[in-house]
Amino acid sequence: MKSNLKESEGRISNSGQAVIFIVMAICILVFAMLFMVDVHRIIFIKDRSQNAGDAAALAGARWQASSINFIGELNLMHALASSLGDEASVDVITNTQMRVCFVGPMTGVAAAQQAAKLNGIHVNEEFTSFMKEHADKIENGYASIMNGSTALPEPWLGAWEEYADMVNAIADEGVAAGVDNAILYTDPMGAHPLLQIEFYEAIRGKNWCWFHFYGVHLLEEYDGYTWWPALPEQEEIVLTSPEFLPLYLKPSEQKLSSVAGDGDASIKEAEVQGIELVPQKSHVNEKLENWYYYNSARWGSWDTMLDPAFPIEGEVRDEYNYQGADSVMRVEANSHRLMEDAKSHDTIVWTGAAKPFGYLENEDGKTIPNAVGLVLPAFHTVNLIPIDASSAPNGGSFNMKWRRHREYHLPVYLAEGPSVLSSNCKYCRQLVTWEFPDFRASGVEWLSSNSWKCVISPPGGGSSGGTRHAH
Ligand SMILES: [Zn+2]
After folding, report:
1. Distance, CA 197 to ligand 1 centroid (Å)?
2. How confident is the model at residue 459 (pLDDT cuts 50, 70, 90)?
3. What are the DSSP calls for 181-242, one per residue?
4. Contact 300, 437 (CB under 8 A)
5. Residues 38, 272: Cα–Cα separation, whole Å
6. Is residue 68 a contact partner of residue 356, using CB atoms and an 8 Å limit?
């Protein structure tokens, strides 16, 4: 009896253990399966974002290339018309160039949207509302006279209305790929601490080392908002192409004789491109006309304009070693996880960068397209480039909170003090912390004995995470 009972107890506990084991195994399997599905989903979405971002960037760059080539062709036609004394044609050509400068890049922005959507990226609400906001600004701000400053000069009559229409048309379709290298994101030059996004990040993270490198005097000497130097004056801008996918070309008034005169490389290049220019000594040659040139502030060689951390390994061939027009597109995709609650998701961001390339062939070999200054049709290909070699700014691109802080909060804070800081703005909140004397004193104290721990941090990075090194 006794032993029988023991046996049956044993059977019960054995089968009980088996059930527990099976339940555990099923749980593990289910979790493993969910995990695998999540991993697959993330990889799938990452691949898709990457394809979409790269495709969008390439689409934008292709339109930049064709626009610049077209403007270059028109320069050559201009030279021909001008040398024949055909003033009416010169006018039509110059007018067409002005419009191509706007329509070309904006078509590129639209083409980028198609490319992103065809690769499975959905419309992004933030990017779309930004486009709409900007269209409003063009329509209501650029053409009017505000705060005593004059209106932004129009390249042609009614240009701002047409430009606003183009931006609106793209916003109406929904923006899936944000233009990450829009001129709009370029923060004013100068070293004002309040215009450095890193300043706010240093406060938030109590990164006293930032102050060690930037200037400990900030922590030591600051004694209230009136201490800040004035913000730099907004540079007066002249737009010759849209703020999105800018071509960085500029019209310049020149006589034909100086564009195609003796000793000028331009005529030689033009002849190499297959057009014979025979400037005749007519009155037309002495007239100042608009020709399209590369803006030399933007079209320089890569190795002189980039910091030493240039991410390309090895040599860049001379004929490809130039900055200038490029296209940087950001896409964002959400991947919902099965393993956690439905609200949790990973946002996968991919920034693709591409650039038109080409060269001029002459007796000396190959030279960069901007070697002669005058725009000529020279672009043959578009290629993906590393994001660090692109013109996308380091901080602030598509960071609407930062843009609003910079444009609207800072001027009021500098005029009226910390009482106007907005608790809804994460940058304003850092300024509130900054105002506490104890906060700044603790930094000075830490640095007095720990500054040796500060090592130079690599350039770039910041809150944008890994996106800068997208490829
Ligand atoms: Zn703010």
Report:
1. 11
2. very low
3. T-GGG-PPSS--GGG-HHHHHHHHTT-HHHHHHH-THHHHH--SGGGSPPPPPPPPP--SS-
4. no
5. 58
6. yes
Ligand 1 centroid to 320 CA: how many Å? Answer: 42
φ, ψ (nearest 5 deg) of residue 287 = -85, 140
Any idea what the Cα angle at residue 382 is, between residues 377 and 387, rounded to 5°? 125
- Vertex 398 angle, CA 426 and 349, to 5°: 100
Ligand 1 centre from 410 Cα, in Å?
7
374 secondary structure, DSSP code: B
Q: Are 355 and 326 in contact (CB under 8 A)?
A: yes
Find tokens 């215009």 and name the residue. 195
**Bridge partners of residue 347, in order along the sequence:** 334
Q: 214 near 451, Cβ under 8 Å?
A: no
Ligand 1 centroid vs 353 CA: distance in angstroms? 30
pLDDT exceeds 80 at position 341: no
Give the C-alpha separation, 421 to 435, whole Å.
11
Q: Which residue has the higher pLDDT, 61 or 153?
A: 61
Cα 406 to averaged position of ligand 1 atoms, centre (Å): 7
CA of residue 332 to ligand 1 center, whole Å = 25
Cα 353 to Cα 375: distance, rounded to the nearest angstrom: 23
Give the pLDDT mean for 266-284.
55
CA angle 5, 7, 8 (to 5 degrees): 65
Provide the Cα torsion 42, 43, 44, 47; round to 10°. Answer: 120
CA angle in degrees (0–180, nearest 5) for 235-112-465: 65
> Residue 456 C-alpha to ligand 1 middle, in angstroms?
28
More confident residue, 349 or 61: 61
Centre of ligand 1 to C-alpha 336, Å, is: 31
β-partners of residue 179 are: 329
What pLDDT shows up at residue 50?
93
Compute, in angstroms, the gap from residue 190 CA to the centroid of ligand 1: 20
